[in-house]
Here is the input.
Amino acid sequence: MTRVMNFAAGPAALPQSVLEAARDELLDFQGTGKSILETSHRSPEYDAVHEGAQQLVKKLLGVGDDYHVLFMGGGASAQFVLVPLNLLGDGERGEYVVTGSWAKKAYKEAVTVAKTSGGSAHVAATTEQDGRFTRIPEPQSWDVAEDAAYVHITSNNTISGTQFALYKGIPECAAPLVADMSSDILSYEFDAKKLSLIYAGAQKNLGPAGVTLVVIRQDMLDRARADLPTAFNYQLQAKGKSLANTPPCYAIYMLGKVLGWIEEQGGVGAVQKVNEAKGALIYGALDELSDFYRAPVAKDSRSLMNVVFRLPSEALEKRFIADATERGMIGIKGHRSVGGIRVSTYNAVPLAWVEAVVSFMREFAKANG
Amino acid sequence: MTRVMNFAAGPAALPQSVLEAARDELLDFQGTGKSILETSHRSPEYDAVHEGAQQLVKKLLGVGDDYHVLFMGGGASAQFVLVPLNLLGDGERGEYVVTGSWAKKAYKEAVTVAKTSGGSAHVAATTEQDGRFTRIPEPQSWDVAEDAAYVHITSNNTISGTQFALYKGIPECAAPLVADMSSDILSYEFDAKKLSLIYAGAQKNLGPAGVTLVVIRQDMLDRARADLPTAFNYQLQAKGKSLANTPPCYAIYMLGKVLGWIEEQGGVGAVQKVNEAKGALIYGALDELSDFYRAPVAKDSRSLMNVVFRLPSEALEKRFIADATERGMIGIKGHRSVGGIRVSTYNAVPLAWVEAVVSFMREFAKANG
Here is the structure.
């Protein structure tokens, strides 16, 4: 079998060694004579998987036992609702930094929730211009109420290809910081202890689709609403260690394996170095070949996870995608809402694939420029 | 490898051929050079999996295009909330037939939801006695308001081992019938067209944990609230074909494979025959050996999916479980809330395993009776 170079935005490439390990034990999990897919969530062997993954999340994020690690269903989209449902009380205000389509969706869902909770959702900053987002706003420019319940940011914007460089420092906020880190969690080192709540759909940097990671600090949890139904209640989910009802076991198992792989690479710092090298390579090529390729994102807002660019015409973009596919590079079509090209370079995308795509970019520009 | 006989209540045994097929293509899904675990939910190859599974659900349930098939996250527990959230409007009443712990939980969550929606949840019938449930109540005895928004039943009660015999006929109700069929969906033929909404966590009869099937009829969907956030909104989920955001792709893929396996067996009718044979075998033994084993469930309410029974003492139950484990039979410990023994005999549990457990039951009774 020839493995394709998968640059999809998510569900995205997983480490090959993780897939091989999953395959090898698919019918017989650790000699138990059954698959992990058919293993009870109340069994000691599943417990070890579940708790192991929770511990590894804390270790890799560098947070202590004042943080709770939840595994939930419904994707990050469900968290767009659960964050305000749990944390936006009567008369309280949630601040939203709108830096992309998903951030905007999070804000809109909060507005819907606020209608019944008596709270309100407010745009603290937006970088939308003519329906596009090409930069991250400076925290100094945010319009944040002093007593805001939280400030919500989207650390990486998958569609527009912009990223908060949290590794350069966390925005200073009086209010608790909530971050949707679906597309860049554990891709670089940062001070997670400054965040009160992190959530992330797994299908980009953490594993397959089907589980959403929620990491919440005790003081934030204490402020969450206590009277919500169990499935939507952060306090009860934390109390039940995400085992109040059957969790998405297999997705959690795979997430644990991916976290183990990050450790094998030398930890988040080592992974970050590779991500920076990949970014330098591809953005370097884009800058060098700027007569042909156009990178719309402001330089200081460029994402190391999703590299978006345009070609001189849509016809050339179409040919670029077709030619790339022929060379075994897939998933590079830009999101249907913005068009163009998007090369996603999550943790599991090796440097060699990025070298291949950059070499193809040079070749294509030469032939068509 | 020796495959254990897995009688767990869920996550439960899956057909071996399904697991083998999943293993064989884990690294290379249909020659695409990547795993289904890393395949975009916007790709044609995933589309075929997703839509194929939706079509197969309809075919096996025998319903037409006036039904929508949704794949959601969060387990059946999330549906405990979403059913009243979507369907219990201001001043409306949801009727709950409380036949077990999960049915009671569904009712309680509806009470919580109703507090803010202006609706109400009402116990139409309960068979709880001293904290136990041992029978299904006759529909004639239900106290249902004529203009109820819906009547909610739990078709099979995993913990107490009772089951509505829907194959003998659907309860006649003026109000729309909503059924939590998590633990017996597609285990027998019944007239699904008489139900307005069916939901089921996959991890018993449909696949691994991580996806919840929701099947909703158009007229019920038309009555659902339109102003809920996307992730919790039946109308928007149906409109987006459960692809408004990333669904739990791998669990859906496995669910599709399990449905394909049901077809291979000859369809739901053929599977039902095997389930009836398994039930006859194990309940026959319990009745025959009633000096030793005690089957607490009323005969006309016995579940073909979860067979619960007691031994003369807890010490003997402990030894029974240990001896069974030695013989490669696992997952037979009763739910911690009720104790005793529970043998779950879902579709994927072959007749041969039930023969083995029955043979062991005879042997154990003889040695310890």
